[in-house]
Amino acid sequence: MSYAADAETGRFSITSVGADVVLQADVERCDLRADGTDLGFIELTLTDSAGVVQSGFDRLVTVTVEGPASLQALGSGSPATTEAYTSCAHTTYGGRLIAVIRPTGRGSISVTAVAEGCPPATTTLTSN
């Protein structure tokens, strides 16, 4: 804890990561415009079963999109990668990756991400 003038100004804790690895998909928002001008962002994170980020190692993640949309980009933010952002497979950096989805019409969009040793992470978006 940190204090200033006898008032608590901050608090933190350190948590050890578990041995299990889960690929988690978090969607910025589920409803997208179907007019071709909108993008959906899905953060893919390697965590343990308690949700603690597995930042100590990275894995290749492959993303597939079903429905009226395309994978616009897939990237990790790594400053030293030779992987293309237009590919459907990319390696996480610090346990994280982001998928950018572009709707191409109206309907339900299913996005599935897979990584070695992890159950698939699937999320659904809707374009209207």
Describe the structure.
This protein has one domain (16-127): Immunoglobulins (Immunoglobulin-like, Sandwich). Strand 1 and strand 2 form a beta hairpin. It is built from no helices and 11 strands. By secondary structure, the chain is mainly β. A 5-stranded mixed sheet has the order 4-11-10-6-8, with no helix packed on it. A 4-stranded antiparallel sheet has the order 3-5-9-7, with no helix packed on it.
SSE-based structural type: mainly beta
Number of domains: 1
Which second-level CATH architecture applies?
Sandwich
Separation of the first and last Cα atoms: 47 Å
What is the CATH topology classification name? Immunoglobulin-like
Query: Level of helix content?
Result: under 10%
- Roughly what fraction of the amino acids lie in strands? over 45%
Strand and helix layout:
Blueprint: E1 2-4, E2 7-10, E3 22-27, E4 31-32, E5 40-47, E6 60-66, E7 69-75, E8 89-91, E9 96-103, E10 107-115, E11 121-127
Parallel strand pairs: 4-11
Antiparallel strand pairs: 1-2, 3-5, 5-9, 6-8, 6-10, 7-9, 10-11
Distinctive features:
0% helix; Immunoglobulin-like; four-stranded antiparallel beta sheet; mainly beta; five-stranded mixed beta sheet; 128 residues
Summarize the structure.
The protein has about 130 residues and is an all-beta fold. The protein contains no helices and eleven strands. Strand 1 and strand 2 form a beta hairpin.
